[in-house]
Design a protein that fits this description.
The complex is a heterodimer of chains A (400) and B (260). Chain A is α/β, with parallel strands linked by helices and 400 residues long. Chain A has helices spanning 15-19, 44-48, 86-102, 119-124, 143-157, 168-181, 294-304, 312-316, 347-353, 370-373, 382-399; strands spanning 2-5, 25-28, 31-34, 55-58, 73-76, 79-80, 83-84, 106-112, 129-134, 161-165, 185-189, 191-195, 200-207, 212-217, 224-228, 245-248, 261-267, 280-284, 307-310, 337-341, 358-363, 376-379. Chain A has three domains: 2-58, 2-Layer Sandwich (Alpha-Beta Plaits); 67-256, 3-Layer(aba) Sandwich (Rossmann fold); 275-399, TPP-binding domain (Rossmann fold, 3-Layer(aba) Sandwich). Helix content of chain A is 27%, strand content 26%. Chain A has a seven-stranded parallel sheet, sandwiched between helices. The relative contact order of chain A is 0.09. Chain B has a single domain (3-225), classed as Rossmann fold. Chain B has helices at residues 36-52, 67-75, 94-108, 128-136, 190-198, 244-255, and strands at residues 3-7, 9-11, 17-18, 25-26, 32-34, 56-61, 80-84, 113-117, 140-149, 154-161, 164-171, 174-178, 202-204, 224-229, 238-240. In chain B, strands 11-10-9-12-8-1-6-7-13 form a nine-stranded mixed sheet, with helices on both faces. A two-stranded antiparallel ribbon of chain B has the order 2-5. In chain B, helix 2 packs antiparallel against helix 5 and helix 3 (94-108) packs across helix 4 (128-136). Chain B is globular. Classes of the chains: A alpha/beta (400), B alpha/beta (260). At the A-B interface, helix 1, helix 2, helix 5, helix 6 and strand 11 of A face strand 3, strand 4, helix 3, helix 4 and strand 9 of B. Strand 17 (261-267) of chain A pairs antiparallel with strand 11 of chain B.
Chain lengths: 400, 260
């Protein structure tokens, strides 16, 4: 167990020392030495030494018993007020692709109250099997009962992969499930694939605020759990000819016990628009100058059927509610089109929007970093440019 | 009311990147800071204790340098600080981390509320908070944006949803994770800074915990990093300077097929 340097293979190139984020490696007599007090076994040096393979991390870890008996790809069918969330259809599309590679079924777990009639649509979207537990006690999302039921189903049916939406609900419940099952969980994956030779699930996610991509494996534990954000994968279209099995699962009342209780649910669409699901976001920075001036961004957003976003500085000034904040301490979004208006493009903002499909930047300063990530950039005053964009888009859409 | 706040020392992520030439992690000048969300957790812990009495214990797992983060927490008003640092913890993923923190919190024993930031900015997983609650088998309320009531033996809190919020009641002891909206963190006082300098930081290693060695560190971590790489660079964009009318026309033309 642990990390070691093969002194015969080490060429003393020093790449590992340069790479180590924890300053744990020094070169002694032309060979790498690892300070075990500082090392966190993060694997960065092993990567850096891929060419010479002088550094090795040895793992001894437990293994899920009967690991080869785990088969099938599952999706957690998150619903709110009985409506299956669009992200579930995105995950079903990906699950179908993975399952076809593995030659196994796609199953979806649907928990809630009055949700039974939604199972057919889930099948049209790519599932072969839907496990449904329809019980009034599941009306509100409750971490404990949802986790208990999900854990039980997994133990009984042994899927090899489970995909979960990276929503407030999905992230809360699956973290508890992972602990109860003692298995690995990878958050916010942006690429998912299968290594067929080893039958492993390759889970790739941004790390360090998106500046680095990391591919994560869980070699010895099943199921392999991953969460995925909205809009990362395309939604799978419904195929009315698809058929599948709907299995209703009943549970003893002890499964529905929860120490937490939901007293009240407050929808506040006006102030907490779910910008993670928006196709178009028109975002503004401090250059807007005031809360009132966001009107011009709202007009453009309205024409394009989108919503507004904001930088941290704007939210901290109280011009726009926190629900619209994009970036490190706000939301991570990936719309089809992101307009960055009067946003300089500090890294804290970029990490929240740089995976948008198309980025349009409007800024007076031609050297603003936002232009580095923009597909289209207009150097100019946003108070001139944005209303003009609104006008021209309105014309184009009217014609269409 | 006794509160445990879990904090993490993270690299200032804005500065971490991969060298385009050598393909290695560039660590020059990367500073370690308290995870930004954890300041809101500390602040909420301090407010609960100011209201009800009791103490705030701040706990962090990390390398010996993480002591600096704990001293900073004391300067803000936390009463005690525990550093979990041991070779045996190295290589922990979120499962092993939440297991180890839960074991340490069991040792602290006397707690009513555990508070974590909603996630850490280096990993962005939001898994460790609920993981601790699961290991301790206590209820949780994640993404809390306001504590409405903390009287009696329960907590009533607003949990942020994608399209609003819900009011959730949990009996004590419980764990909450907090979002930025919950409060405005204080800045350390001069007195606090003096106290932090002298404060004794409690240090525990694996041997101090009633925990199975096979469930901590790399041995207790099902996930492993297989490879790391730079994200593919974005295609070079078109930047328009000069005539705004022409620029807008070009952009609208380019985008019109993407408006579904």
């Amino acid at each position: 167990m642990g990390i070691s340097v093969d002194k015969n293979k080490c060429t003393g190139c020093g790449l590992c020392a340069l790479t180590c984020p924890f300053y744990a490696i020094s070169m002694v007599n032309g060979k790498a030495e690892i300070d075990l007090e500082k090392c966190t076994l993060c694997n960065a040096c092993v990567e850096a030494c891929r060419k010479f393979q002088a550094i090795q991390i040895i793992r001894e870890t437990t293994k899920t018993p009967d690991i080869e008996k785990y088969k099938g790809v599952w999706v957690f069918g998150e619903q709110r007020n009985g409506n299956v969330q669009p992200v579930v259809y995105e995950l079903l599309g990906k699950a179908r692709e993975l399952a076809d590679k593995l030659q196994v079924d796609v199953s979806c777990v649907l928990l809630g109250s009055n949700v039974k009639d939604k199972a057919q649509e889930i099948i049209r979207r790519g599932a072969d099997v839907v496990f449904v537990t329809d019980n009034p006690k599941l009306e509100h999302f409750l971490d404990e009962s949802y986790a208990r039921i999900l854990t039980n189903l997994i133990r009984k049916h042994r899927p090899e992969i489970l995909l979960v939406p990276a929503t407030v609900t999905g992230r809360s419940v699956i973290s508890r499930v992972a602990v109860q099952l003692r298995v690995g969980l990878t958050a916010d994956c942006t690429e998912l694939d299968i290594d067929l030779k080893e039958r492993l699930f390759l889970q790739t996610r941004p790390a360090f605020g998106g500046n680095i991509m990391a591919t994560i494996l869980s070699k010895y534990h099943r199921p392999q759990l991953a969460t995925v954000r909205h809009k990362v994968f395309p939604e799978r279209a419904a195929d009315p000819s698809r058929t599948g099995k709907i299995i209703e699962m009943d549970f003893d009342k002890s499964f529905f016990i929860s120490r937490t209780r939901v007293l009240n649910v407050v929808e506040e669409m006006a102030s907490t628009v779910n910008i993670s699901e928006a196709n178009v976001i028109v975002a503004g920075g401090r250059a807007l100058g005031s809360a009132e001036n966001f009107r011009i961004l709202r007009e453009l957003a309205d024409v394009l059927g989108g919503t507004i976003g904001a930088t941290r500085a704007v939210v901290d000034s109280g011009w726009v509610p926190y629900a619209h904040q994009v970036g490190q301490t706000g939301k991570t979004v990936c719309p089809n089109i992101y307009f960055a208006c009067g946003i300089s493009g500090q890294i804290q903002h970029l990490v929240g929007m740089q995976s948008s499909k198309i980025i349009v930047a409007v800024n007076k300063d031609p050297s603003a970093p936002i232009f580095q990530v923009a597909n289209y950039g207009i150097v100019g005053d946003l108070f001139e440019v944005v209303p003009l964009l609104t006008k021209k888009f309105r014309e184009v859409l009217k014609r269409a | 009311m006794n509160v445990v706040v879990c904090i993490k020392q993270v690299p200032d992520t804005a500065q971490v990147r991969i060298d385009p030439v050598t393909k290695n992690l560039v660590r020059e000048g990367v500073q370690a800071v308290i995870n930004p969300y954890d300041f809101y957790a500390i602040e909420e812990g301090l407010r609960l204790v100011e209201k009800h009495g009791g103490k705030v214990t701040v706990i962090s797992m990390g390398p010996p340098q993480a002591e600096a983060a704990l001293r900073e927490a004391i300067s803000l008003g936390c009463d005690e600080a525990v550093l979990l640092s041991d070779r045996a913890f190295a290589g922990s993923d979120t499962l092993a981390t939440s297991y180890t923190l839960a074991a340490a919190i069991k040792k602290i024993k006397d707690f009513d509320v555990i508070i974590c930031g909603k996630q850490a900015i280096d990993g962005d997983t939001a898994q460790v908070g609920p993981g601790i609650a699961a290991h301790l088998d206590i209820p949780q309320i994640t993404y809390v944006r306001k504590i409405e009531g903390s009287e009696g033996n329960a907590l009533v809190a607003q949990r942020t949803l994608e399209e609003g919020y819900e009011v959730v009641k949990a009996p004590l002891p419980c764990l909450i994770t907090v979002v930025k909206e919950i409060n405005k963190p204080r800045i350390p006082s001069l007195k606090g800074k003096m106290k932090a300098k002298k404060a004794e930081i409690i240090k525990w290693g694996a041997a101090h915990l009633d925990a199975e060695s096979g469930r901590m560190g790399i041995a207790g971590s099902p996930t492993e990093v297989w490879k790391i790489y730079s994200p593919p660079p974005r295609a070079k964009g078109q930047i328009f300077e000069g005539n705004i009318e022409e620029a807008v026309d070009a952009v609208v033309e380019g985008l019109k097929d993407h408006l579904n």
